[in-house]
Design a protein that fits this description.
Blueprint lengths: L2 H11 L3 E4 L6 E5 L3 H11 L8 E3 L6 H4 E2 L3 H10 L4 E7 L5 H4 L4 E5 L4 H9 L7 E2 L14 H8 L9 E4 L12 E4 L3 H4 L2 E4 L5 H8 L27 E4 L1 H13 L4 E5 L8 E4 L4 H16 L5 E5 L8 H10 L6 H6 L6
Parallel strand pairs: 1-8, 3-6, 5-9, 11-14, 12-13, 12-14
Antiparallel strand pairs: 1-2, 2-7, 3-7, 4-5, 5-6, 9-10
The structure holds threonylcarbamoyladenylate and magnesium ion.
Magnesium ion binds next to loops.
C-alpha cells in the first residue's frame, strides 16, 4: 500500500473527506458510518441534505452488514458485476445513518473496480468500512472524470485547511458516466427498477436475474441524479440530429454566434469542437471532459450531435437530455437574434 493511500484512509477514519477515482466518475468520499463526515460532503457540494449517497464497499463485502431483507437476486448481481459500475438499492440496515439514506429506508451500495478505490477501501477500517461518496462535483454540475476536474471544482476546499484532505489521482475514469442504479428494495412487489441507466445495461441485468428492470414509477425512491436539470454545464446545451447539424451550424455562424461543438461524425471545424468516438463506450468515456472543455470555450451554445437512440446509447442519451434540459428554443433564439448577445 502506498503512503498516500494509507494517509487518505487515516483521514477518512478521522472524519475528513477524500476525493477518490472510480471507474465511472470521481467520488467525494466520507466514512459512511460517521454522520458528521457525511454532512461535510453535503456542505462541500452544496447539495440538499435529503438526497441519499451511495456507499462504496470493498470486494467480498458482507452485504448483510449494510442491508436487510436482501433478495438472492442482489447477491447474483453482485457476483456478476462487482467490482464494477452497478449500484443496488436495498433495504438499509438499522445502523446506516439518515445522512447516508436521505432519511429513506433504503441504502445504495456499490463495489467499484478502480484499483485505487479498491486499495483505499481495503486500507480504510481494515476493509470493513463503507465510503459514502456522491460524484465529486458541486450540486447539479457535470461529474468529474479526472483529478484535475475535482481540483478545478473545489480549489480552496482541498488540503490541510479545507474540507477535502486528499484528491487521489487515478487517471481518467474508464467508463465516464455514473453507475447504473437498480432498485431491488421493492423486488417482491414491484420487481427490479432501473433508476439510472449506465454502462451495465438493463439487458445485462436481465440476463443474470431473469427479470427485465422496469422504468421508474412515481413511488420509486428519489434520486438526485434523476433530477431533470442534473449534469448541466453553465453554457446552454442543445442536441441536433446528424442530418440537421451542418445546416444549424452554418445558420448559427451566419447569425454571428459562437458554437462549441461535440460531435462524432465528420464535420467542418467551428469556434471550438471536440470529436468523440462513435461507439457508446468511447463516447461515454470522453463525454464529461468534452462538456467541461466546451463549457470553458466562451461559446453561446454547446451543440451536441445527438447519438443513436438504441440500447447501448441509453446512458449517454439520459445524461445529455438532462444537460440540455431548460435550453429548449435556444438554437432558434440564437439564429433569429431573439436571445441577447
Ligand atoms: O458511479 C457512481 O455512481 C458515482 C461514483 C462516485 O460511484 N457516484 C454517483 O453518486 O454518481 P451521486 O450521488 O452523484 O449519484 C448517486 C445517485 C443519486 O441520484 C442518489 O439519489 C441515488 O444515487 N441514490 C443513492 N442512494 C439511494 C437510495 N437509497 N435510494 C435511491 N436513490 C439513491
Ligand atoms: Mg452526481
Amino acid at each position: 500500500m502506498t503512503d498516500v493511500i494509507k494517509a487518505a484512509a487515516l483521514a477518512l477514519e478521522a472524519g475528513r473527506l477524500v476525493a477518490l477515482p472510480t471507474e465511472t466518475v470521481y467520488g467525494l468520499g466520507a466514512d459512511a458510518e460517521n454522520p458528521a463526515a457525511v454532512a461535510a460532503i453535503y456542505a462541500a457540494k452544496g447539495r440538499p441534505q435529503d438526497h441519499p449517497v451511495i456507499v462504496h464497499v470493498a470486494p467480498g463485502v458482507d452485504l448483510d452488514y449494510w442491508a436487510t431483507d436482501i433478495p438472492s437476486e442482489a447477491r447474483q448481481l453482485a457476483d456478476a458485476f462487482w467490482p464494477g459500475p452497478l449500484t443496488m438499492i436495498l433495504k438499509r440496515a438499522p445502523h446506516i445513518p439518515d445522512a447516508v439514506s436521505g432519511g429513506q429506508d433504503t441504502v445504495g451500495i456499490r463495489c467499484p473496480s478502480h484499483p485505487v478505490a479498491i486499495e483505499l477501501l481495503q486500507a480504510f477500517k481494515g476493509g470493513k468500512g463503507g465510503i459514502a461518496a456522491p460524484s465529486a462535483n458541486k450540486f447539479g454540475a457535470v461529474s468529474p472524470t479526472t483529478a484535475q476536474h475535482v481540483r478545478d471544482e473545489f480549489g480552496d476546499d482541498i488540503g490541510e485547511h479545507g474540507r477535502i484532505a486528499f484528491v487521489l489521482d487515478g487517471g481518467q475514469s474508464e467508463v465516464g458516466i455514473e453507475s447504473t442504479i437498480v432498485d431491488l428494495s421493492r423486488l417482491a412487489t414491484h420487481g427490479p427498477v432501473l433508476l439510472r441507466p449506465g454502462h451495465i445495461s438493463a439487458d445485462a441485468i436481465a440476463a443474470v436475474i431473469d427479470q427485465v428492470p422496469a422504468r421508474p414509477d412515481a413511488a420509486a425512491p428519489r434520486a438526485s441524479g434523476t433530477l431533470e436539470s442534473h449534469y448541466a454545464p453553465h453554457t446552454p446545451v442543445a442536441m441536433q440530429d446528424t442530418a440537421t447539424l451542418a445546416d444549424t451550424l452554418s445558420r448559427l455562424q451566419e447569425a454571428g454566434r459562437k458554437v462549441a461543438l461535440i460531435h462524432y461524425s465528420d464535420l467542418a471545424a467551428t469556434h471550438a469542437a471536440v470529436r468523440l468516438p462513435a461507439s457508446p463506450e468511447g463516447f461515454a468515456h470522453a463525454l464529461y471532459a468534452a462538456l467541461r472543455a466546451m463549457d470553458g470555450a466562451g461559446a453561446d451554445v454547446i451543440l451536441v450531435e445527438a447519438p443513436p437512440q438504441d440500447g447501448p446509447w441509453l446512458g449517454v442519451n439520459d445524461r445529455l437530455r438532462r444537460a440540455a434540459h431548460g435550453s429548449t428554443g435556444i438554437v432558434h433564439g440564437l439564429i433569429n437574434n431573439t436571445t441577447a448577445l
